[in-house]
Amino acid sequence: MKSILITLFAIICSVPLFPATDMAAFEQERVARRDSVLALITGAAIPGDSILVTDFGAKGDGVKDCKRAFDRAMKVAAQRGGARIIVPEGTYLVKGPIHFVSNVCLDIRKGATIKFSPEPEFYLPMVETSWEGTFLSNYSPFIYGRGLHDVSIIGQGTIDGNASTTFSTWKSEQKPGQARSREMNHKGVPVAERKFGEGWWLRPQMIQFYDCKNVTLQGVFITNSPFWCIHLLKSENIVCRGLRYDAKLVNNDGIDPECSRNVLIEDIEFNNGDDNVAIKSGRDNDGWTHGTPSENIVIRNCRFKGLHAVVIGSEMSAGVRNVFVENCTFGGYCKRGIYIKTNPDRGGFVTNLYVKNCEFDEVEDLFYATSMYAGEGLDNDKFTRVGDIFVDGLRCRKATAAGLVLQGTGAEPIRNVMFSNVEIGEAKNAVSFDNTVGVEMRNCHIGGRAGVPSTAK
Q1: Contact at 8 Å (CB) between 94 and 66?
Q2: Whole-number Å distance between alpha carbons of 314 and 49
Q3: What span, in angstroms and rounded, lies between the C-alpha atoms of 83 and 97?
């Protein structure tokens, strides 16, 4: 019965919803679609059995290497069929990755910090992962799980990647490895042959769950990540709730759902050195052949601060659909509010995006959708279908560059976009639409509201 309901839901949500005149009926339908997504999301089951990591030799003095203690606790949890691993107050140095097993909750209590060692050699041997949308083997993410179910990280403690002296300095060295990964992607080299790691300078993610079901990440404070902070890869039924960030090293994205479905992101305090939420689904050939769409994602009640608030792309070749962003505000500056980015290398689609009641202060661009990102792929013909976008109640005090931007292509215009109740106090460029079909604006005020017209004297 559940599989029938999920299939029916997918069929319903694949039908475009575009309002004619009855906005009340449209809002009811939007809420019904959102709620049908939420009904599919439960997150992880939390085990009742508890064990203390200190019982396995961990010491919270910030000096002793506690990796073996975490490994032993995971092993015992697996033998018991699952457990909550409690990390009490203290600083726990970990020289290497923590690899999860199923049915485990890592409970990092208030006053506790898991502090990873920055030496790259501790994150070998390599594991199968993905890097900027290409599947390959690389350094292990600091916290990693693959092919698992019911995994969670909760608590009021801290996860400190401690990556400022090593991994965060690698970006200037990564171009050869980045180019090699993309060449292998485009040529369809078997994933098993894509070996990176030492000498290729591709930074690992802080937390990655790959091909996992039933995931909860709640409450913890995240800082000093080597690369993306949380990477949810080909996973489903995920809750991210109440997380807190001060992660401003290079490319410290907050949450990156990639080829993942049924995701709830709520009540997050972002403060990141890159995108807050970046929804992806694989890059180019890997998206078409190894990826699956990212779909059914609800982002609500978040406070954004960083580069961009909510991004779709640019690695989105398997497609993105059914994304709801609502009741969000700002905790500081964001360059862009909502940003869709793709180009003629990507293919795929972006459809059924709903933005409701979101507010920013000063931005560069409030809403920006482009099919010509970075000027790449302009000689190719893998055009992305972008459309069925509904924005109701989007506000900012000032847009220093542009308020609303839509950039389609002649071959594939951006279609069916509705802006309603958009309020922008000041904008250098109010509206810039190129290669679009079916764009509607209702009750929008950019540069202030016009008052009563003056009369002749």
Answers
A1: yes
A2: 42
A3: 19
Q: Helix or strand or coil: residue 119?
A: coil
* Sequence-distant (≥ 6) Cβ neighbours of residue 79 within 8 angstroms: none
Tens digit of pLDDT for each residue in 368-379? 999 999 887 777
Of all helices (H) and strands (E), which one includes residue 232? strand 230-233
The tokens for 360 are 């920013």
pLDDT tens, position by position, 412-424? 999 999 999 999 9
* Six token digits for residue 294: 């990212």
d(CA 179, CA 171): 13
Phi then psi dihedrals of residue 28, to 5 deg: -60, -40
Q: Which two tokens stand for residue 251?
A: 């490319």
Residue 168: strand, helix, or coil: helix
Q: In sequence order, which residues have a C-beta less than 8 Å from that of residue 425 and are 6 or more positions away?
A: 396, 397, 398, 447, 448
Amino acid at 33: R
Q: Decide the pairing of beta strands 320-341 and 349-370.
A: parallel
- Which pLDDT tens digit goes with each residue over 86-101? 999 999 999 999 999 9
Cβ–Cβ < 8 Å for 370, 336: no
Q: Is the pLDDT of residue 26 over 70?
A: yes
Q: Is the peptide bond before 125 cis (omega within 30 degrees of 0)?
A: yes
For the chain, the farthest-separated pair of C-alpha atoms sits apart, in whole angstroms, at: 89
The residues, any chain, with a CB within 8 Å of residue 218's CB and separated by 6 or more, are 152, 153, 154, 155, 239, 240, 241, 242, 243
Q: 455: pLDDT confidence band, cut at 50, 70 and 90?
A: confident
Residue 241, token pair as written in the block: 């709730």
Cβ neighbour number for residue 19 with a 10 Å cutoff: 18
Residue 220 phi, psi (nearest 5): -70, 160
Half-sphere CA count of 346, side-chain side, radius 13 A: 32
What is the spatial distance between Cα 320 and Cα 326, in angstroms, rounded to a whole number? Answer: 17
Please give the Cα distance from 351 to 1 (Å, whole number).
27
For the full predicted model, state whether its pTM sits above 0.85. yes
Sorted by sequence, the CB contacts under 8 Å of residue 83 that are 6+ apart come out as 47, 49, 50, 51, 73, 76, 77, 103, 104, 105
Confidence band of 443 (pLDDT split at 50, 70, 90): very high
> Which stretches of 219-319 are assigned E, i.e. beta strand?
221-223, 230-233, 236-241, 244-246, 255-258, 261-266, 277-279, 294-300, 303-313
Distance of CA 347 to the CA centre of its chain: 20
